[in-house]
Design goal:
With 429 residues, the chain is an alpha+beta fold. It is 46% helix and 19% strand. The protein is built from 14 helices and twelve strands. The strands form two sheets. Strands 1, 2, 3, 4, 5, 6, 7 and 12 form an eight-stranded mixed beta sheet that branches. Strand 3 (94-99) and strand 4 form a beta hairpin. Helix 4 (121-135) crosses helix 6.
Length: 429
């Protein structure tokens, strides 16, 4: 559809129903206006062409903190914050992307996909995605895209993976006849981060953004992760998920993030294995003295977190399926405590006086202790960024006011789980 036809299509009943599904009832007009602005931005930048719309959500991690890179288990969901793009093939060897949100104008020659020496930024990440498609045997081609995003940056809700999966959806739709599945998307995104950012990430962020809905994933075989959708809506239990932005850390956290998978793998290495999923917890405990001497105490603590966190994921999934919501909340609390005490990713030792995560968790625990309801935990990679709270609906506004008074206006976001991951919007209506 051309620009004017697309703008008219956005206003019809089918579009309004889809917007309510993606972003929540009552937010249809806001969403339609946002998409309309993207379409108009595309026209202003690239002219009036036959275009398609795409959307890719951010993600929330319910449980399974830092387990995916050692082939463990997670419980995660796509959220109602997303990247939205209007795009069209341009029949050239150039990819031209304009990001309204970050004021970036990227032009990439498909015959020059080498990363920059610094291996950082959106340009390198985009080149990595394109190279990942080619190395996996998929097709790429030239296209134009105008993109916006309201996925909170540097906040543990995977703004980068949301962008990656949006581009995967575009490349799949335009050049691969829609043949790629969400696992293929995720491996391409992981490739880009591993090789073009030198970031030791796993598949969690990409899978949760790509698949959509509330899902549990077992990464024991990372080439074919086992994904199961969980038919549960937190609203049905009278609860809401709130993400609290605690402030961006000033330290370079790359080494902190990478140390977690590396130290877990040190423990696995003692047993001649590459990841902890190939080791039994009992083996570590039976050989604890020797493992501590070879891998170090923090490595052992992080390994124990891995084993116990996998059990908590299984417990949470079972509790949701069986309608034991209070048990589910208790396991969230236990999972968060494990991250804080065993995994140790609530602050960086290089800047120990900066503890936004710890302060936000302490405040939230005081609130929950007083109200006797709810749960909270660190969210995402950790060290700085965000926490998650799961609270009864009647406490949400009081909690948001309480946290904004302490941490600043606009720090808390009420989220909902959306049923669709990274998709071509036109194919849903």
């Amino acid at each position: 559809m051309k620009v004017q036809e697309t703008l008219q299509f956005l206003e019809n009943n089918e579009s309004k129903k889809l917007m309510a599904t993606l972003y929540g009832p009552g937010r249809e007009a806001e969403a339609i206006a946002r998409y309309g602005k993207v379409v108009e931005g595309f026209e202003k930048t690239f002219g009036d062409q036959d275009l398609l719309l795409f959307t890719s959500p951010g993600r929330t991690e319910i449980s399974g903190n830092h387990t995916d890179h050692n082939h463990g288990k997670v419980l995660a969901g796509s959220i109602n914050l997303d990247c939205v793009g209007a795009a069209a093939k341009n029949d050239s060897r150039k990819v031209h992307i304009l990001s309204e949100t970050y004021d970036q104008d990227l032009v990439i020659d498909l015959d020059d996909l080498a990363p920059s020496p610094k291996k950082a930024g959106t340009l390198d990440l985009t080149k990595g995605l394109l190279k990942g498609f080619l190395d996996a045997g998929y097709k790429v081609g030239g296209f134009d895209a105008y993109i916006t995003s309201n996925v909170i940056s540097a906040a543990g809700v995977s703004s980068s993976a949301s962008y990656e999966m949006l581009l995967c959806a575009m490349l799949n739709t335009f050049f691969n006849e829609g043949k790629l599945d969400t696992v293929a998307y995720s491996h391409v995104g992981k490739y880009a981060e591993n090789h073009y950012w030198d970031k030791a990430s796993g598949l969690l962020d990409q899978m949760a953004c790509a698949a959509g809905g509330l899902i549990t994933i077992d990464f024991k075989d990372p080439s074919a992760p086992v994904v199961e959708k969980i038919d549960f809506d937190f609203a049905s239990a009278g609860h809401s998920l709130i993400i609290v932005q605690t402030g961006k850390g000033h330290a370079d956290l790359s080494a902190d993030y990478s140390s977690i998978p590396e130290e877990m793998k040190k423990v696995a290495g003692y047993f001649g294995k590459s990841v902890l999923a190939e080791v039994r917890e009992e083996e570590v405990l039976e050989n604890l003295k020797a493992v501590r001497e070879q891998a170090g105490d923090r490595s052992v603590m992080r390994a124990l977190h891995f084993f116990e966190e996998n059990k908590k994921v299984d417990g949470e999934v079972a509790a949701l399926k069986e309608g034991r919501f209070e048990d589910f909340l208790s396991l969230i609390t236990a999972s968060g405590n494990s991250s804080w005490k065993w995994l140790q990713n609530c602050y960086t030792n290089s800047s120990y006086q900066e503890q936004g995560i710890s302060v936000a968790l302490a405040l939230t625990e005081l609130f929950i202790d007083e109200k006797k309801r709810g749960a909270c935990r660190i969210h995402g990679g950790g060290f700085a960024g965000v926490i998650m709270a799961m609270l009864p609906n009647d406490l949400v506004e009081a909690y948001i006011s309480y946290m904004e008074k302490a941490l600043g206006e606009g720090c808390a976001y009420k989220m909902s789980i959306r049923p669709y991951g990274a998709v071509c919007w036109n194919e849903l209506v």
